[in-house]
UniProtKB/TrEMBL annotation:
It comes from Ruegeria marisrubri. Residues 4-62 form the HTH lysR-type domain. This is LysR family transcriptional regulator. Belongs to the LysR transcriptional regulatory family. It holds the Pfam family HTH_1. The lineage of its organism: Bacteria, Pseudomonadati, Pseudomonadota, Alphaproteobacteria, Rhodobacterales.
Amino acid sequence: MLYLSLRQYEYVCAIGRSGSLSAAAQQLHVSQPALSAALAKIEDHLGHPLFIRRRGSGMAVTPQGRAFIEEAEALLARAARLEDPSRPHPGAGRLNLGCFVDLAPFVLARALHGLRGAIPEVTVTYRADRFEALISGLIKGQIDLAITYDLGMDAGFTREKLYDSRPCAIVNPEHPMAGAARASLADLTAFPLILSEEGLSAQHMLNLFRRKSLTPFVAHRAASLEILRSLAAHGEGVGVSYANPASARSYDGKPIITLPISDPEAAESVILARHGTGPADPQIALAQTILSEMLGQA
């Protein structure tokens, strides 16, 4: 005999869609206390939480909750088709991939192509965004896996290292450092710098200098990698970035030179991350294996 009714599955799905008990209760035409009590009974029966209660910011879906909701929605769809056989059949599954915006031009297309070839029955969508947005998307269950740098994540995330990335200094051909084979963090303090305006990225770079008791002068915080490269190409300073496109020219056609930054501690890991530390949903685990094999030697 089944413990959970279809109505209880509807409760969980409605909370997942709306992100709050009050909104879900209105949609379902039940009181909020009754819905909260029903959810508590469901979670108690399952033995794990489906949502994280966050005071003042609604309900965040746990990884187990996301998997449960996907199965529940499929079950409800099948039940609806029994009543109305004319209803269309849903797809086999969905996977939502996130990617840090500066990494996306280098790895995202290859990742999508590989996933769609290996698991064609799964609909793969993607989102290229900044660190904070990716972390938020993972926590809320809007992103299943993210390709990003290992910045800003706490112990509530599972990480798998794909490869190490090293930063480079970007200068124009007339710059005093243009003829060097490499640059050190200490070398860079002699010149105005151009960093990303992305908060965690800039903070990480500045921390590298601070750990060596160095004080850099930041002249610009660029809104994108190509703005950073263009500013460097026009002599506005030395650009510093982990992303290093193959082109030796900026978007506006100016020549640039990239120098590897030699300090060993400047290396940063590119990782595959998911929210939660327990076993992954089988579909997510399969996608993680595919991406690890594909990008691990990037």
